[in-house]
What does this fold into?
Amino acid sequence: MPVDFLISALVTLFVVVDPIGLAPTFLAVTEGLSEKLRREVALRVALIAGIILIGAALIGDWLLAALSISLSAFRIAGGLLLFSIAAEMVLGVRIRREGEAAEQAVDERARNIAAFPLGIPLMAGPGAITATVLLAGRADANPVQLALLLAVVIAVAAACFVAFLFATRIGRLIGVTGNIVLSRLLGVLLAALAVQYVVDGVRAILAG
It folds into this structure.
């Protein structure tokens, strides 16, 4: 049903991208920039990541077919990849990697910062791209569900833009401890979604 698909897509992409969790990283990466430049970077990041994820939703299935990869196999591989990302979130590895990426990008120009590391791979990373392709596969060429997926991608990109605009307040509000706890909770939820993708893929292969 469209409503079930919409809820699944919203939960999956919001958990994988994690707009609130990226706010402290955005602050670290844009340290030293003026508020005006920060707003420009926030908008550019949202546009870059949104375009990449929309592209994944629209041509992901075609690309799989061109490479002779079945959707079931991609579901299993994607589920395992998402599970590894979830494990990193639960164990705190993702936070450390984001911190390293932030340190490397402090001296970059604003437009370069927006492309890397904020746009890729922190916002539109392998996990988000994989999740988008898997969701597009679940849409099964249904125009309504595909439109809902594109709307979700736009909503997630917009949420990141808003989170970046209020990054200073969010960082103050949730603090370091709050960010860690939030990342752990979202990681557990993502792990459950990842396992479901693997189960769906195995079930489809066995049924075939």
